[in-house]
Specification:
mainly beta; disordered N terminus; five-stranded mixed β-sheet; two-stranded antiparallel sheet; Tumour Suppressor Smad4
């Protein structure tokens, strides 16, 4: 399973031990292929750089939704340990979403169906 992805570079040039001069542009940044843009203040927006992500309450998910603010919402109990998975097919150039939840995952208002997957289009809304 992929490690959680930092949303920003936390180490500046001053902190890198190197005898050569450092330029912020020289720091390797991961190639972002997608973005989960949150429309809810309790969920972070995430740049997608890995080929697969899982989202849910479980500690093994790459995107964990268990902040105190989220736990205080009435919907928290409806989120599964692993709610859904997003994966990228680099050969066919598709992005898929797979519903792994108990209560359903919706894309643009349409239920995916337990253990089913579908192509995730640009600007789709996941609920």
């Amino acid at each position: 399973m992929a490690e959680p992805v930092p949303t920003q570079i936390t180490q500046g040039c001053d902190e890198i031990e190197d005898s050569a001069p450092c330029d912020e542009d020289d720091i390797q940044k991961p190639d972002v292929w997608g973005r989960l843009l949150s429309i809810n203040k309790y969920f972070p927006s995430i740049n997608l750089v890995e080929d697969e992500y899982s989202l849910g309450r479980g500690k093994k998910c790459s995107i964990i939704i268990d902040s105190k603010e989220v736990q205080a919402t009435k919907l928290f109990a409806t989120y599964s340990s692993v709610h859904f998975k997003i994966s990228r097919d680099t050969v066919k150039n598709y992005v898929y979403i797979q519903d792994l939840s108990s209560n359903g995952t919706f894309v643009n208002g349409d239920k995916i169906g337990k253990n089913k997957r579908r192509v995730l289009d640009n600007n789709a809304e996941i609920a």
